[in-house]
Each structure stands twice: as C-alpha cells, then as structure tokens.
Amino acid sequence: MAPIELQISLVLLFALGGYLLSSRINQSAVVGVIIIGIIIGPSLLNILQYTDVIKTLAHLGAIMLLFSIGLEFKIRDVYQTKYLIIALAGIILPWAAGYFLGYLFDYGFKESMFIGVALTATSIAITAKALEEMKKLHSTAAKAIIGAAVIDDVLGLLALSVATQSANGGIAAEEILNTAVKAVVFLFAGIFAAPYIRKLFLKIDEQRFIKGFPDFLFIMAIMFCFLYASLAEVIGLSAIVGAFLSGAALEGVKFKNGKDLKEGAEYLHVIFGAIFFVSLGVLTNFRELTVSILPLFVSLLAVAVLTKVAGCGVASRLVGYDRKESLVIGFGMSPRGEVAMIVALIGLTSNIISQDIYVSIVLMSLMTTILTPLVLRNFLRW
C-alpha cells in the first residue's frame, strides 16, 4: 500500500484533473471529479483503491462541505412544515416503489424491504455542492431541498430500523420510537442551542487575547462541527446532518477580532470535498455489472429518479411552489450518493440482501449522483 502522503497527493492530483474535465465539458465540478474517480478506480484503470485513508478523508470532506453550507443558512429556515410534507412524500413513494420492484424481480420480503429503504435516501452533499456552484444556494427551491433532506435523514433512519428489524424476525415498536425521539430531540436541541452558541462566540471575540490569536474562534467552530457530527452519529443520523446544524447555528456571525468562519471553512471543504467526490467514483466498480444484473440496475435507476421527482415534486406543488421550482426540488432530492451506499453495505454485511442487489444499489447511487447536477445545470433553466 502506498504511503498516506502519496495517496492524498494522488487523490488531489486526480481531483484537479476532474476540475479540468468539468471545464472542458462545461459541467459541474462534482460531475468531472466523480468521473475521474471512476476512471482511476477499479472500474477502469485501477490506479487508486478505496483504502481506509481515502474513506476517512472522504468522510471529513462530507462533514466540512455541509458545515460550510450550513454557514449560509438561518437555522429557522430549515424547519418548516412544508419541508416535512416534501420529505414524507420523498420517503413513502420510493419505499413503496422499491418494495414493489423487489417483488417483481422475485425477491423475498426482507430483500424487497431493503431495496425500498435504499431508495428513500437523499445525499444532501451532492445537491448542495451543485447549487453552490450555480450560485443558487439561497433560492427558495434550494432551501426546500436542504430542509427536506435533513428531515429525510431522520425518516430514512427510521425506515432502516424497521427494515432491519423486519429482516431479523419482528418489529420492536419501542426501539423505533426510542430512535425517533432521540433524533427529534437532537434536531430541536440544535435549534434551541443556536442563539446561545452565537452569543458564546461573540462574547469570546470581545476578549483581549483574541487579537493575538485570531484563529481561536475558527478552531472552536470546527470543534463544534465535529462535536455535532459525532452526536448525530451516536443517535444514528448521518454525521453531515450534525455538521450542517453546527454551521447553521453560526450563520451570519461577524467577528471584530477573530477570523471569518466562511473563508476558513471554504478552504477546508474545497480540499476535503474534492477527496469525497473522487472517492464516490473510486468506490464504484462497473466491472461487477453483469448482464444478469443489468435489468435490476436499470429498473432501480429509473424508479430512483422518478419516485423522488414525482413524490417530492408533487408535494412541492401542493405546498405552494411553482412547476419549475417543484421540478428542481424533485431532481434535487434524487441523488442517493454515499447514503444509499452505506445502507446497501449494512444490508450486505447483515446477510439481508445478496451481492446482485448490493451492486445494483451502489451503481444506482453513483448514477443518480452524476445525473442530478447534469439535470439541474443543463435542463432546468432558472
């Protein structure tokens, strides 16, 4: 195995190649970097493997990306009833359609349940990065996507709990309720703590020693970011939800003596985020896509896109968004990214799903990740 330093250098070198490719094909950097990841990964050249080092750095990249995005959002903008309605539609329809798809391909109850759960996922990191590049992060549709995706993560966690328990022989209502309560308490605690965290930072900024150590508050902010991320993971939520909430808690904070949080976070998320997007391509192996798996993969991909666009899109129309905004929200909720890949891995290692389902879900996750920025950038004119 190559030294850690060389692995990092190679990943960043190839990420630069992804940026150049994106400029040539006039697409989002996300698309170019993931394509480069596919090329250098086991699918084609097999130059780079998904090592523990790459996995860790990619995880840090997703956290830093969502912390940076969170700094752009007022925390009260994330929690609205209409976002809950959109998220519910984006969970129920994909889950039901995924279960029915499994039934059509002659899979049993537990496999079909897990296919449905994998389809409920939404990777907030992919859409957020694409919207940021398009300078549409503050649009009404973007706020709906971010808000619904945060709620989606909670609902997806509950869906995963139900599917796992069903596969193991029964459903413990008490355990599911306990999981739901912990997730909701965490989210509302984030809202409640936000003004106090802001006051704490501003109070420290007034201290005399900050003039000599202007980096202090930025380090403190990153500490809060990883604290929130770790608490989210303890509960069972994605770490990136915690990172996003920590960023949103500090939205708009201006320091007199400390360094600007947005500027520092931007540099970190650009570097580690590049590793994250390369890793998604490296993680996927198209050589495992055999002729026998192809029908399931194609069907899964079609259902994955259509159910999110239909479910979230129709729900968006019902709560007051216009047709174009509803389409943007529907497609924006489509990428499954690393979230569905993790769900698939849990299913495989728990002997709930077979290798063919696992491969199909991973490839579907990658394709929805690539398709979403392409659709948002090229076909939905804002």
Number of domains as seen in the coordinates: 1
Tally of contiguous helical segments:
16
Head-to-tail CA distance between termini: 46 Å
What portion of residues is helical?
A: over 70%
Identify the overall geometry.
globular
Question: What gyration radius follows from the Cα positions, in whole Å?
Answer: 20 Å
- The overall pLDDT average reads 88
CATH class: Mainly Alpha
| CATH architecture term | Up-down Bundle
Low-confidence regions:
none
Q: What structural class is derived from the secondary structure elements?
A: mainly alpha
Question: What's the short version?
Answer:
This protein has 382 residues and is mainly alpha-helical.
Protein architecture, described:
It is a single chain. The chain is mainly α and 382 residues long. It is built from 16 helices and no strands. The chain has helices spanning 4-25, 29-40, 52-70, 81-104, 109-120, 124-133, 140-167, 173-205, 209-212, 216-235, 239-249, 261-283, 294-318, 323-332, 337-349, 355-378. Helix 5 runs antiparallel to helix 15, helix 6 (124-133) runs antiparallel to helix 7 (140-167) and helix 7 packs across helix 14.
Feature tags:
382 residues, mainly alpha, 16 helices, Na+/H+ antiporter like fold
Record the SSE blueprint:
Elements: H1 4-25, H2 29-40, H3 52-70, H4 81-104, H5 109-120, H6 124-133, H7 140-167, H8 173-205, H9 209-212, H10 216-235, H11 239-249, H12 261-283, H13 294-318, H14 323-332, H15 337-349, H16 355-378
Helix pairs in contact: 1-2, 1-12, 2-12, 2-16, 3-6, 3-11, 3-12, 4-5, 4-7, 4-13, 5-7, 5-15, 6-7, 6-16, 7-8, 7-14, 8-10, 8-11, 10-11, 13-14, 13-16, 15-16
